[in-house]
Amino acid sequence: MSKSFTILATSDMHGYVMPYIYSDNSPAELGLAKIHTTLQTLKDENTLLIDNGDNIVGSPLTFYYNKNYSDKPHFMATMMNEMGYDYYNIGNHEFNQGPNVLKNYMGALQMPCLTGNLHVDNKPVSKPYYIHTFPNGIRIALFGMVTQHIAAWEPPVNLIGIEVEDAFEYCKKTVEQIKKNEAVDAVVCVYHGGYEKDLHTGEPTENQNGENWGYKICTEIEGLDILITGHQHQGIADVCNGVITGQTKVNAQQIMKYTFDVDSRDGKCELINPTYEPDARILELMSTLEEECQKWLDTPLGTTKAHLKVEDELEAREHKHPIISFINQVMLDHSKADLAATALFLNAKGFNSTITMRDIVATYVYANTMVTLEMDGHTVKEFLEKSAEYFAVIDGKIGVSPLFDGPKPMHFNYDMMDGLDYTIKVSNPIGSRIISMTQDGKPFDMDKKYAVVMSNYRSTGGGDFDMCKRCRVLQNDQTDMVDALAQYILDHPDIPVYHRDNITVIL
């Protein structure tokens, strides 16, 4: 009889435990409570349960918890311990709250860490690899990595004592070490990163900047049997160059099941949706915290007569929505900068006439802070040109460039700027689409220096806004954007919205 093993993997759960959408509490097929019930139907003694990171940031519940209980063992660690995970890997969002929160989270987890390319305080957080022996006698080598691109996103204060080796180089040397020193039936890599090229054609699907090396790993490293990926939030189950590889969607919507027969060397992976009833024990463990969070989410903060609901995201980007004007308005008020830039995030809901914390966290979904950079007019134009790459001419109409729509939707990399008026001509070549820039009815002064406020993610060059890296930092404000929005609303209970239709997008 042939022998096989199974790996069940989750990734990019972003703190979603409960089986509903926080924007309106509507039921949904997601969350760790449903994942746990589903896992019980899939596991046997020759099965491993592994998580691939991005757990402690990304939901209203994680925001509430991180603001109020950052010194406590993280609830996601508690849930994973309860569920009996065998190994875990670290994701890039585990660094968003700084090294102390990262250490706290890792210290609360009761299973081995796989992230061999991560060093904290000059010490690796994991062994180079683990040898796991299943009850049926199969021995596998198992190791993990996180994308080294973290340094391109995080402010230095979040990376004190943190070093991350290049994921590809680490993977290559580790597989070579395993092949040289170990007699195993299979080699498995758990990588919090994704694919930079189409798995079948090899065509680039994004900028080849090292953020994702999945295709390169599959095609250039010999001896790897399974590559578990994440980070991009895609639902992919595939084989690339003989390597079984895949990743799940975001927010605990899926489980990936990898099976491998060591005699035939055949394997496959498949995506499984959590369709069972949520686990009662998980719901019970979360009940007190969840009740606190729901009360906080429903706290009224102020009212507005402006229309701030988002009905059509493309329309809201093509014709700048008043919610963008409002976010930029808050950033300008808080920073006293000249110009402000922000994005409309994927699935942003906007605000009701009576604004609650639920409205804010369902609209501004990331744990960003504000950074003010000094830019001259030429650099501002370069910034706007980069944003203008978001659009493309599709079937003779203005649409979204395929590079922003997939493989991972990156609509958060289209920033809209307030403080000047400008025109984007989409049919022009990339780099020459900004055809008009004015301020107060006069030509924009290209030689003048401006204070430009944006998210900390963008200020470090996130989204390939490399021009930001050249700019002098005028102010690095650690106020969370959600807090800044809430405080502004509390200070202005009947909220004025100074909407200006200052961006013209034409063919």
Description:
This protein is an alpha/beta fold. The protein has 14 helices and 30 strands. The protein is globular and about 75 Å long. The chain starts with a strand and ends with a strand.
Structural descriptors:
six-stranded mixed beta sheet; five-stranded mixed beta sheet; alpha/beta; 507 residues; 26% helix; 14 helices
Short description:
The chain has 14 helices and 30 strands.
**SS content category:** alpha/beta
Supply Rg: 23 Å
Individual helix count: 14
Low-confidence stretches: none
Please tell me what the overall shape is: globular
Mean pLDDT, to the nearest integer, reads: 95
Strand composition percent = 25-35%
Ends: how far apart?
A: 64 Å
Number of strands: 30
Strand order of the largest sheet: 8-9-11-12-14-13
Q: What's the assembly state of these chains?
A: single chain
Task: Bin the helical content.
Answer: 25-40%
What order do the helices and strands come in, and which of them pair?
Layout: E1 4-10, E2 20-21, E3 26-27, H1 32-40, E4 47-51, H2 60-68, H3 75-83, E5 87-88, H4 99-108, E6 118-120, E7 123-124, E8 130-133, E9 139-146, E10 162-164, H5 167-181, E11 186-192, H6 214-220, E12 226-228, E13 236-240, E14 243-247, E15 255-261, E16 267-272, H7 280-297, E17 300-304, H8 313-318, H9 322-335, E18 339-343, E19 354-356, H10 357-361, E20 370-376, H11 377-388, E21 391-394, E22 397-400, H12 402-405, E23 415-418, E24 421-425, E25 434-439, E26 442-443, E27 449-455, H13 456-459, E28 472-477, H14 481-491, E29 494-495, E30 503-506
Parallel strand pairs: 1-4, 4-5, 9-11, 11-12, 12-14, 17-29, 18-27, 24-30
Antiparallel strand pairs: 1-15, 2-3, 6-7, 6-10, 8-9, 13-14, 15-16, 17-19, 18-23, 20-27, 20-28, 21-22, 24-25, 25-26
